[in-house]
Amino acid sequence: MSQSATGPELDRLIQLLARLPGLGPRSARRAVLHLIRKREQLLLPLAEALQIAAERITLCSICGNVDTRDPCAICTDPRRDPAILCVVETVGDLWALERAQATRGRYHVLGGTLSPLDGIGPDDLSIAALVARAQNPEVREVILAVNATVEGQTTAHYVTDLLHGTDVRVTRLAHGVPVGGELDYLDDGTLAAAIRSRTPF
Amino acid sequence: MSQSATGPELDRLIQLLARLPGLGPRSARRAVLHLIRKREQLLLPLAEALQIAAERITLCSICGNVDTRDPCAICTDPRRDPAILCVVETVGDLWALERAQATRGRYHVLGGTLSPLDGIGPDDLSIAALVARAQNPEVREVILAVNATVEGQTTAHYVTDLLHGTDVRVTRLAHGVPVGGELDYLDDGTLAAAIRSRTPF
User: Fold this and answer.
1) Cβ contacts (< 8 Å) between B54 and chain A: which residues?
2) Are the Cβ atoms of B53 and A23 closer than 8 angstroms?
3) Which pLDDT tens digit goes with each residue over A151-161?
4) Contact between chains at B36 and A50 (C-beta distance less than 8 A)
5) Which residue from A28, A111, B12, B79 has the least number of CB within 10 angstroms?
6) CATH among 1.20.120.140, 3.40.720.10, 1.10.8.420, 2.40.50.140 for B2-56
7) Is the dihedral of CA A112, A115, A120, A125 positive or negative?
8) Which among B27, B189, B77, B101 has a CA at the least distance from the CA of A2?
9) pLDDT for res A189
10) pLDDT in tens, A42-62
């Protein structure tokens, strides 16, 4: 009966939308109804934008970023500092750092973290490509901008070991109190790290 | 900088997705990254499904349901009982009743509820069309399956008044304890209604 109410076309659309992170079957149905109500303003433009993305978006063969060209806009931007390589786990992390305008260097997307339990080893990440890029004498510093999780730190240690003996300086993100954060809500590890890394005022 | 990181195509896609109910800018970015990772399994099929929906989906001129044909599959289904007209606020409610296989009758989608504060009067809803359908001697019962909210009940009373004097029987949904519900978590109004409408065991 549910089939006859929504029809195969809408059922398929709902199923596909429900597979997006953050959406389930119920919110996908709401989204589809919203799309139908906003046919001109939302449904048609979204269909077109997805088509364009599907046609043009590709992965940068140098850094792993997503863009409409390969190499990507960041890798080919002459204003970016080629001496700094900022290593991130995912493209989402790269976007976050770009929004924050946190670095003027270039990026390297690992594609995840080492996770033996999930069967993800060094060969599943673009670690070899990172080591190769770091051999370039232009590169002076590798910033390990991985998540402060066990997997992220494990991966950071593994990469650091591989880069040992090269001339590049390997750095990692500072631990500390988030800007705007309240001490009372922070975990002990963060507070201890913030005290340890205290700076002159 | 955010522009240069994601590019205009992805920025537009993120903006459009962020306008879906249940998604914001952050979850839209995550959704886009997920779509790019699942290009063949999700991005291309979703673009196609949206295109198909945009081309084929229309509103049923009789009941207001969405379907690929007009009149819709429910209005033209000879197995549905033409004596029962189930009045709902939205197509989402119609889908919910169909999933529950709650009625064998046909539907009438009002398109919302009366809401003077929001400037929504009888002419903004398909109330006149409902009254016209109810004149059909085939129709014996109008079930007011509107939400148990103030607006829903106001609308139900308004429709009931308009149908007064016709031969149709006007009914509404029962109030009571939801199936699987725990008394301790229910509001007083629901509990009182459930006691009032108690049935022999």
Assistant:
1) 39, 43-44, 47
2) no
3) 999 999 999 99
4) no
5) B79
6) 1.10.8.420
7) positive
8) B101
9) 87
10) 999 999 999 999 999 999 999
Residue with tokens 């109810």: B134
Three-state secondary structure along chain B?
CHHHHHHHHHHHHHHHHHCCCCCCHHHHHHHHHHHHHCHHHHHHHHHHHHHHHHHHCEECCCCCCEECCCCCCCCCCCCCEEEEEEEECCHHHHHHHHHCCCCCEEEEECCCCCEHHHCECHHHCCHHHHHHHHCCCCCCEEEECCCCCHHHHHHHHHHHHHHCCCCCEEEECCCCCCCCCCHHHCCHHHHHHHHHCCCCC
Locate the chain A residue with the closest alpha carbon to B23.
A22
Domain range annotation of chain B: 2-56, 81-172
- The pair of three-digit structure tokens given for residue A187, joined into one six-digit string: 């975990």
Strands A66-67 and A58-59: antiparallel
Tell me the CB-side half-sphere exposure of residue B153, using CA atoms within 13 A. 5
